[in-house]
Amino acid sequence: MTMTTSATPAPGKKVNRIGLELSAYRGGKSTLCAGCGHNAISERIVEAFYEMGVDSRRVIKLSGIGCSSKSPAYFLGQSHGFNSVHGRMPSVATGAMLANTDVTAIGVSGDGDTGAIGLGQFAHLMRRNVPMIYIVENNGCYGLTKGQLSPTADIGSTLKNGVVNDLPAIDLCALAIELGASFVARSFSGDKKQMASLLKAAIAHRGTAMLDIISPCVTFNDHEGSTKSYSYVKDHEEPLEEISFVPFFEDITVDYEPGTVRQVSLHDGSTVFLKKLAGDYDPTNKATARRVIYESAARGEFATGLIYVEPSRPDFLTLLNVIDQPLASLPTEKVRPSREVLEAIMDSLR
Amino acid sequence: MTPPELAVQEATAERAVRRVVNDLCIQVATVNGSGSQTANLVLLRALFQMGIPVSGKNLFPSNIAGLPTWFTIRASRHGYIGRKKEIDVLVAMNLETAREDVLAMEPGSVVLYDETFKLNAVRDDLIFYPVPFDRLVAPVCPDAKLRKLVRNMIYDGVLARLLGIDLAYMDKALTRQLAKKAKALTLNQAALGAGFEFAATSLEKRDPFVVEPMGATAGKILVEGNAAAAIGAMMAGVTVVTWYPITPSSSVCETLTTYMRKYRMDKDTGKATFAIVQAEDELSALGMALGAGWMGARSMTATSGPGISLMSEFTGLGYYAEIPTVIFDVQRVGPSTGLPTRTAQGDILSTALLSHGDTRHPMYLPCSVSEVYEMAIDAFDLAERLQTPVFVMSDLDLGMNTWMSDPFRYPDKPLDRGKRLTTDKLAELGDWGRYKDVDGDGIPYRTTPGDGLPVYFCRGSGHNEHGQYSERAADYVANIDRINRKFQTARALMPPAVVDAVQGARIGIIGYGTSHWGILESRDQLRLEAGVESSYLRLRAFPFGPEVADFVAAHDRVYVVEQNRDGQMAGLLKLDLDATLLHRLRSVLHYDGMPLDARTVTNEILTQEGR
Ligand SMILES: Cc1ncc(C[n+]2csc(CCOP(=O)(O)OP(=O)(O)O)c2C)c(N)n1
Ligand code: SF4
Q1: Are B549 and B581 in contact (CB under 8 A)?
Q2: How many interchain CB pairs under 8 A, A with B?
Q3: Are the CB atoms for B496 and B464 separated by under 8 Å?
Q4: Closest to B447 measured CA to CA, from B439, B438, B459, B435
Q5: What sign does the CA torsion over B96, B99, B100, B106 have?
Q6: Nearest chain A Cα to B370, which residue?
Q7: Contact at 8 Å (CB) between A269 and A248?
Q8: Four-residue CA torsion sign, B189, B190, B196, B200
């Protein structure tokens, strides 16, 4: 176990390891409904980036279109943000990361944005393992267009007006694992502690970290008959493990009982500790991960926690063998071939 | 010799003595997948190396193997490199189309054919040269499996002898083509020789067509438009290329990949100074290009009509959020999947106004390979200067066919990275707003993620000049009007039309893109055959410069020549020109998927002129 020294906080106000206060990580005032699960997620994002001491000027935040996709405006006010088009944020994020991997990217999407119009782009983002955090704020309905069914609504769940959903739900975690994602987790917007650890682990992961966070829509999908209401989710959440996250810059002080804990080392030297609740759950085993999703779904439950992780899978930029320096800022000498090169090409065409 | 052929000889005796030097059109009719491309390119290049202006056009079907294909080589001592409809020499290698091809020929023209086709029975007013391909290929290619590929070289040998091409030119062209494949080279050389030998001993020349060396191609190159676009993009310093395969644009990114892997690897690290990604569709291709453009990289994608329509929503985002990127549109025949392997200029109107709301996009309109190269470079500069998606409107004829050209010039301007905010500029401005019109040209200053300068929120929803979300009417109007000012700024930054004003000419012709070549030749026909003088304006960009209105005003009737059914460019001109000028515009339209030829233009103008 590697030991590193803790940062010494500056006297006076509480600051993080790069000397910033929590307020530096906040964004604009939310215009989402009071009580919307998406707001709770924004708060956790603010805390996670603060606690990890990430320089938010080196963060880009992207989204598609929807209530959830509005949320990048409500966190990390000192970061560049991009609301793209409905469902197509993955491509914009991919292009952005191709241009400059010196930044950390966080994408926020909805279950309609990801599971319906954006399913294709979501699939290819997972396959490519583009280095970024991809959060689905999953409320089982379309919030911004006033409550229609989304593809993650469970079969048999009802809309407020009584319409029953006849179609099976798309399980975005199962799909992501199937497609080759290297970090897949599920959580609940009401579970502060679990989400905090998962977000920090996602920041430390190199590759796509997909977080499907059940985030109830208080306005359109919080009634009896909905399987994405606060009360339903609270009653049916089944954590796979108790998670602790120790960033690379902190001493590991927690004392775990050997044998009951699984330790996963992430790319930047951080560690995730998973204290087993459900048998001997192994998040690095794809087959187990899939099974646990199917089995809990069959019981009408949500398995939450770090479901699958493959920290060593190379990310997209590594696969493309792209130079370390950001492509966006390469000088002319590196990007415009010489006169001799053009001459050689002309000669080959004579 | 069969009696009908003797008769032909008499019928064409006059032409035979006339000798037509360096002015002919050869069409090879084959089946795709039969390996005729090598023979065709060798013939083309041999003529080119003799110093004769040439062009090569491939008419191919939308499948991989087994359907009819035609390759046309035009040699013109006058330097005409557009399509000529009238075929002088047909090489009939495909039984399926042979009869129809022969029936379409002008009296007195030449048919070189596989003797088993018995084409001399079809007509008696052509000159027929039967060739026993199977008998000739067997001894030079003992491996029966390879004969199908090698037998095409026999017609090259026969043509070399008949037209008077020194075998050394053919051999040089063949060696260039197959230098890396020694066995194939030897077999093809043998077939070439066998064809030549056969013609020398068994065919009596009865046609007037001959070629002779002339000095019109010294230093020139032969290249396809898509390769020219790729070279231009590389010289422009593109770093992020995202694309989805579609005919006829795929070879832009495929060729670019080849060149970039060769010439754009970092010497110190051996790593790529670029990223090329084959996306999952055109939506993603443009989304990625915009993501990269937002971050400050030079990005591009290439596509054709169906892809352009998928890119509509993202193009609107690029326009309104003001993100630079370059889109190459190699146009093909629509609507829908249309004729995927045929040429057209049918995306003009939809691309100019692509997406919803009020959108207008700068478009370059290259007519030649050298222009597509130069415009590719300029497009990246313009996209960054204007902070908007910029289109380069090529077409299948330009993109996939082989054109003769002067070698490309090394770009003499440094890369124009546009209005990037700097610390100094920030101090000078005091209050920076992402969408503020500081200089009155409609172009604001931008920052890019990671540059340490002030951040902003990029979005396709309504925003004020500070980039903040806004639904205020006044903010919307101010912003959309400023973006239009930026588009007006583009008029001065894009290349003006090329005008050839002829003293006393009452009619004007407006053309663009590959229509240029047919128009050039047609103007000569109009003058020489009908005594009609014409002025000519060739558009090179949208938005149009002021010279366009002046040109229209200076002529009684102005024919807008284009390759689509609805007169799309004429429509755009009508949106732009003063209402008092509109009655002067007329359309000459050609939209059968074949490249535009001079005769079509000439006939249509004469008809509309009442001649
Ligand atoms: C091309 C396109 N189609 C439809 C819409 C309308 N639209 C906006 S948000 C949305 C659904 C959002 O639902 P979800 O992604 O689940 O997010 P939520 O609002 O529930 O957070 C739709 C259909 C759009 N903006 N663009
Ligand atoms: S409508 Fe639903 S999803 Fe949208 S802000 Fe309100 S509670 Fe949240």
Answers
A1: yes
A2: 205
A3: no
A4: B435
A5: positive
A6: A346
A7: yes
A8: positive
Is ligand 2 within 6 A of the CB of residue A218? yes
Chain A touched by B455 (CB under 8 Å): yes
Q: Do residues A81 and B460 lie in contact, with contact meaning Cβ atoms separated by under 8 Å?
A: no
pTM score, two decimals?
A: 0.95
B458: closest chain A residue by CA: A82
Going by alpha carbons, the residue nearest to atom 2 of ligand 2 is: A217
CB B212: neighbour CB atoms within 10 A? 14
B68 in helix, strand or coil? strand
Question: Torsions phi, psi of A40, nearest 5?
Answer: -65, -40
> Interhelix angle for B282-295 vs A89-99, to 10°?
40
Q: Which residues of A touch B238 (CB under 8 A)?
A: 335
Instruction: Answer whether A16 contacts ligand 2 (Cβ < 6 A).
Output: no
Which distant-in-sequence residues (6+ apart) come within 8 Å of B317 by Cβ? Answer: A84, A85, B290, B323, B460
Check A90 against B287: CB less than 8 A apart: yes
Give the separation between CA B474 and CA B258, rounded to whole angstroms: 50
Q: Is B145 on the interface with A (CB under 8 A)?
A: no
Q: What's the CA-to-centroid distance between B74 and ligand 1, angstroms?
A: 55
The rounded Å distance from CA A109 to ligand 1 centre is 10
Of B559, B538, B544, B566, give the one whose Cα is nearest residue B607.
B559
> Whose atoms come closest to the Cα of A32: which ligand?
2
- Any bridge partners for residue B28, and if so which? B71, B91
Q: For chain A, first and last CA: distance in Å?
A: 63
Banded pLDDT at B4 (limits 50, 70, 90): very low
Phi and psi at B389, nearest 5°, equal: -65, 135
Least CB-CB distance to A329: which of B263, B296, B459?
A: B296
- The mean-pLDDT minimum among A179-188, B31-40, B465-474, B588-597 falls in B31-40
Rounded to an integer, what distance in angstroms lies between the CA atom of residue A32 and that of residue B150? 71
Q: Is the CB of A36 under 6 A from ligand 2?
A: yes
B284 touches chain A (CB under 8 A): yes
What separation in Å is there between the alpha carbon of A122 and the centre of ligand 1?
15
The SS3 of residue A190 is coil
- What are the distances in angstroms from CA A43 to CA A23, A28, B181? 11, 12, 65
CB atoms within 10 A of CB A26: 18
Contacts of B248 (CB under 8 A, 6+ apart): B226, B304, B330, B332, B340, B341, B343, B395, B396, B399, B400
pLDDT reported for residue B60: 86
Residue nearest to atom 5 of ligand 2 (CA): A32
Contacts of residue A253, Cβ cutoff 8 Å, sequence gap at least 6 = none
B460-482: pLDDT as tens digits: 999 999 999 999 999 999 999 99
- Using only C-alpha atoms, chain B has a radius of gyration, in whole angstroms, of 27
Of A85, A103, A334, the CB nearest to B273: A334
Of B1 and A95, the one with more pLDDT: A95
- Identify the nearest ligand to the CA of A74 by its number: 2
Q: What are the DSSP calls for B391-404, one per residue? A: EEEEEHHHHHSEEE
- CB-side exposure of B586: number of CA atoms within 13 Å? 17
Contacts with B422 from chain A: Cβ below 8 Å: none
List, chain by chain if needed, residues with CB within 6 Å of any ligand 1 atom.
Answer: A 65-68, 86, 110-113, 137, 139, 141-145, 150, 217
pLDDT (tens digit per residue) in B369-409: 999 999 999 999 999 999 999 999 999 999 999 999 999 99
Q: If DSSP codes are grouped into helix, strand and coil, which group holds residue B166? A: coil
User: Would you call B221 and A349 a contact, using CB atoms and an 8 Å cutoff?
Assistant: yes
Write out the two tokens for A127. 């396959």
